[in-house]
Amino acid sequence: GLLALPWAVLCLPPARELLTARSPTGYDRRGACRLLDLDGLSAFVGRLRPILRSRRVRSELSASDLARLDGALLTAEDYSRATPRAAKEETDRRRDAADALITSVIRPGHPLHPAFFPDRALLHRHQ
Length: 127
What we know:
Radius of gyration: 19 Å
Strand order of the largest sheet: 1-2
Oligomer: single chain
């Protein structure tokens, strides 16, 4: 009970970061400990990869569009693996470039748009 109270300070994010001086980590598919990327390039690719592999997407996209999107995600995955500590600006730039490519292929109104952009579809529905 009361003996745990001093450790409760570590539950507060600013105090935890200040006192522990650590970056959030997690394990990749190979079991290696890596920096946790919650909103960056690897998270972006990790969210889109299963969608791109689904039967529905493979049946509704042309072979050339599928190859372009697959190539963009593969390039992003390779970069993310090769440079796990890359500058946030660079990973954001690469994520935005991949997002722009996907947006050019899957425009609003496309049957796959809600699968690739659930946040945008939800926002559009409630405007």
